[in-house]
Amino acid sequence: MRLLHTSDWHLGRAFHRVNMLGAQTEFIGHLITTAREREVDAVVVSGDVYDRAIPPLGAVELFDDALHRLADLGVPTVMISGNHDSARRLGVGARLIDRAGIHLRTEPSAAGTPVILSDAHGDVAFYGLPYLEPALVKDEFAVEEAGHETVLRAAMDRVRADLATRAPGTRSVVLAHAFVTGGQSTDSERDITVGGVAAVPAGVFDGVDYVALGHLHGCQTITERVRYSGSPLAYSFSEAEHRKSTWLIDLDADGLAGAERVDCPVPRPLARLRGTLDGLLADPGLARHEDAWVEATLTDPVRPADPMARLSARFPHTLSLAFAPEQAPDDSRLSYAHRLAGRSDQQVARDFVAHVRGAGPDEQEAAVLREVFDAVRADNAVREAAR
Question: In what order do the strands lie in the sheet with 318-323?
Fold first, then answer.
């Protein structure tokens, strides 16, 4: 049996100010094409179908289109809800949609109830573990401690108990949305930390043939049988070095037989640039990034005038601009009082302007500061005299 493992579509999400619905539509087309051309027997989607609990209309329409195209293709699909999804909303009509071969698993109580598909070697049991918020599912799994590892272990106990009742040779696939120890996170995932601990060990999933993970946005292999597909599109500049892909997973009579990455379409490359503004504008080696979405960090000691407009003239798809002036480090060991000792109020104010802006006040600004301090001193003198 050949599986196509994907997750973290985040339908409806934007990349900075760029609407990603067109790129997400292109990915869905790629998914359908891959399933058809690579003769996929089942598609698994491991959560975060939507980017938020109440998705925009365009995202709902795209999801509806994806379901119809998968059903028309005749490829069974198993989906779970992630921490970004509203499990109840995503699961509406699940029993009816089951008849079309689209199996939505959003209820924690069904963790031990598999979707059974078959091939020439017998049955494959697909167990869907939607994102399990510990505080909300603690009672369902009858655990005393509301922690990620505790509730996932309890859910997997149900999986193993059900699997033990199946015919010998039944292979098993678990879909889960979780942060597994050893995985590399990015800036675009929502924190699921509870009590300071979010990660669970891969050993929680012992006893099954393949674990299709969702939540982390980088495609990665935790163990040979425990993998993240990652998101099909980049949703933060921290993913600039990612190779976005899905997994083609082959199962034979004995379990996992092979894994192959299939690259996803890239709407536009990402580039993270750092340097002075003049340096970025003049460097011929950066020509390859002129069509990329750009995050620029300027290191000029003084903030230059109109930096975004000037950057955009060369890099028209600049989306993010930050400043990190390269200056001699202050001696942080000195106390604040020691650093101010012997300095006048005007000198302190000038230093503050320089710290915030990267350069001290010019002559006109310095004159304004002098006038303000003189006025304050005069006012204080009048108050003292009136006492």
Answer: 270-275, 293-298, 318-323
